[in-house]
Amino acid sequence: MARAATSSDIFNAVAEEQRRTILDFLAADERSVGEIVEALECAQPSVSKHLKVLRDVGLVRVRRDGRRMLYRTNAVALKPLHHWARTFEQYWHQQLDRVKERAERKEEKKK
Amino acid sequence: MARAATSSDIFNAVAEEQRRTILDFLAADERSVGEIVEALECAQPSVSKHLKVLRDVGLVRVRRDGRRMLYRTNAVALKPLHHWARTFEQYWHQQLDRVKERAERKEEKKK
DNA sequence: TTTACATATTCCTATATAGGAATCTATAGT
DNA sequence: ACTATAGATTCCTATATAGGAATATGTAAA
Description:
Chain A has helices spanning 10-13, 17-25, 33-40, 44-56, 79-86, 89-110; strands spanning 31-32, 60-65, 68-73.
């Protein structure tokens, strides 16, 4: 079997760096495709394809304005990613604590 | 060009669901490959391959115990993912606020 | 040193890109 | 009705899987 489709879920969709950059760029305000192309210095068809993937998984919303399409990040759709990463917070605190302890024991020995 | 390698960064590595499940499973305690195979109901070679990807990006650590290999999640390596997702927190709060406002305006009209 | 057990690696195949080029579609202006 | 502009879609290709089967490697026990 091949890798899961990029548009099968948000994890696969944001695996591509350009798509993360697009989400960053569209987070605060809506922007046209042309503005994204200029900001990313990326070919227009590539941007359109990335936007389709992001649309398919609900990470961006679109509305038409004349002949331009205005895209905007749908931040809420990133919650599952944030939530998953967050479940590991407790463990990395533990890890840092262990590092600290070791450093402190070393200090003790010096004395 | 094809998709970036799964082992090119943590975002690509965790795009695969099985690999996320493995990270969940190895978060609290170290486990042998056999235990992972049993827990995931996944073929042993597949698990070994997933573990290699996770090792390559630093998401798991290994140590040998006799003829078993004990793996454990290196939670700290997930921080960049958490941090990136977190930058959108402010935006989804704004979104939820807008939804709330709309609901409240509706309530007002009813009266 | 055989034998058994635990993992890792190799080989194979179907599939899904990402990017570039070319083309199609839709809307606005004249 | 034309023409120009903004985006979307299609076609093409090199590349990287994920999973299954078979095999190799490494360690422990008899």
